[in-house]
Amino acid sequence: SNKSYYLQPSASFNMHKGKWDFYAFGSNTWTIKDKGYVNSTRIYENEENKFESHGDINDPSNNINVCTGAFYSIDSLSNIGAEFGYFHNYNNMKTNSYSSLTDATNTYNSNAEYSQKMSFNMLSGSVNYNRKFGNKGSILKFMADYVKKESYNNDFYNILYLWNKSDTIYKSHLTSIYSIASADLSYRNVYSPSTYMQTGVKFTTTQMCNNNGYQSFYDNTWLSLPAFDYSSKYNEYVWAGYAEICSNIKNWQILAGL
Q1: CA-CA distance, 118 to 214, in Å (whole number)?
Q2: Is residue 84 within 8 Å of residue 69, measured between CB atoms?
Q3: Which of 44, 141, 177, 233 could cysteine-pair with 49, CB 3.0–4.6 Å?
Q4: How many Cα neighbours within 13 Å face the side chain of 112?
């Protein structure tokens, strides 16, 4: 069974004034309640063995999406534009369950409580510039964009083994940060309606950092577990240049590039 309630307001804006064009969009999806029930049974060939589990799940969330941009016509041959975006997602899933495993002589049962919180933020921005030359379609283009994503996961696990009166309590923290930036400068020289040559340079950089840590609850104290921790970093820089020539001759197209 499942019960879900959510709100989803949104708004948009567009305006043209003189040489300017503006636009904006925003939406929010707010899931107030998202409850469900899970029931499972495992069947074994040996009828003396049996496994059953049932529990409740609730996963409220909140999503925000905002985008805004502007374009400016410098003159009849050139224009410039910029765009900014923001996205946020938050989930707080909680699960409670009871499990029972029975064999020929014993029953092993447990209660479990799980909490998984995830926060995700992403920022993006881009700029572009176009400049036309002549009346054949030759054009100079410049584009640059940047994206940064941050995610944070905080998980909590509490398992109580009823059959031997023991428990396991631990939590984990995961942080991931990604940054990607790129730029592209190109020029397309149109010689005729059927022939053009395009050259350009590109640059891309990727930065990544991940950190994960675990803690265990023992003797009324949270203890770090460095043996399970891990972290990673990655940096990449890529430069590239390219050239392409294309020509259409009757039913044939000749294309060469580097």
Answers
A1: 16
A2: yes
A3: 44
A4: 17
> What confidence tens digit (pLDDT) does each residue in 208-231 have?
999 999 999 888 899 998 988 989
**Secondary element (H or E) of residue 214:** strand 195-218
pTM: 0.78
Q: Could you tell me which residues are beta bridge partners of residue 90?
A: 62, 119
Which residues touch 25 (CB under 8 Å, ≥6 apart)?
A: 10, 11, 12, 13, 65, 66, 67, 68
DSSP structure string for 182-195:
EEEEEEEEEEETTE
Residue 137 corresponds to which tokens in the numbers above? 């379609």
Collapsing DSSP to helix, strand or coil, 164 comes out as: coil
Q: Given the DSSP bridges, would you call strands 10-17 and 50-58 parallel, antiparallel or unpaired? A: unpaired
DSSP state of 162: T
DSSP 80-129: EEEEEEEEEEEEEEEEEEEEEEE-SS-EEEEEEEEEEEEEEEEEEEEEEE
Which residues lie across from 28 on neighbouring strands?
64
Residue with tokens 């984990």: 172
Chain centroid, CA 125 distance in Å:
16
pLDDT digits (tens, 9 = 90+) for 229-243: 989 999 999 999 999
